[in-house]
C-alpha cells in the first residue's frame, strides 16, 4: 500500500514538473535499504531528465558504519525492461553521507525508440570498500515509476526486414541488428535475444 500511494504522489508531482517531489514520493520518502537493520541507506531525492550526462536520478547515500568505508554501486539496471548500465559507484566514509548522481546514457535507448522512462529498475549493492570478497552489507532491487506504476510500459522490439537471424530454434530468435560505427569507428552489431 505504501508503494501504491507513493507511486500516485510521484505521478502527480512529475506531471506538475516537480521532479524532486516525484523522486521523493517514488522512493516513499524512506531510505531504500532498511533504515533500522541496514548499515547503509540509499534515498532517491530527485529526478533530472535533462542533465548534461543523461537522464539522472539524484541519490543520498548514508554509511551508518562507525569503522568501515562502503562502496555503493548499482549492480544492474533497466529502463522499461531494457537492461542498461548507469554510470554510478561511490565510496562513502564511515559515519558520513554523500549526495551523488546516477546517470543513464540516453543515446542508445533513444535510438531504439525509448524516450519516456516509465519504469526504472535498480539493484543497489553496498559492500566493504576494502574487502570486495565479503558478503554485501546491503543489496536491494527497487523500481522508480516517474509517471506512476500504472503508467509503466515495457519495451517491445518488432523484428525488422534488415535483421539477420543467426539462430532460430522455434523457442527463441537471436537477431543481429546492423549499427553504425562507435567512437573508434569500429563495426558494431546489436544483438537482440527473444
Commentary on this structure:
It is a single chain. With 194 residues, this protein is mainly β. The protein has 2 domains: 2-151, Immunoglobulin-like; 164-193, no CATH class. It has helices at residues 2-15, 19-26, 107-111; strands at 40-48, 55-63, 70-79, 82-84, 89-92, 97-104, 120-128, 138-144, 164-168, 173-179, 188-193. Strand 3 and strand 4 form a beta hairpin. It is elongated and about 60 Å long. The model is unreliable at 1-17 and 184-188 (pLDDT under 50).
Annotation keywords:
194 residues; mainly beta; Immunoglobulin-like; 2 domains; 3 helices; 14% helix; disordered N terminus
Major sheet summary line = 5 strands, antiparallel
What is the name of the CATH topology of the largest domain? Immunoglobulin-like
CATH class category of the largest domain = Mainly Beta
Instruction: Write down the overall geometry.
Output: elongated
Compressed to H and E, one letter per element, the order equals HHEEEEEEHEEEEE
**Percentage of β-strand residues:** 35-45%
Low-confidence parts: 1-17, 184-188
Report the span from N to C terminus. 33 Å
Number of strands: 11
Q: Which structural class matches the secondary elements?
A: mainly beta
What's the architecture of the largest domain, going by CATH?
Sandwich
What is the averaged pLDDT score? 76
Integer-rounded radius of gyration:
19 Å
Helical content (DSSP H or I, runs of 4+): 10-25%
Total count of helical runs of at least 4 residues: 3
What is the number of domains?
2
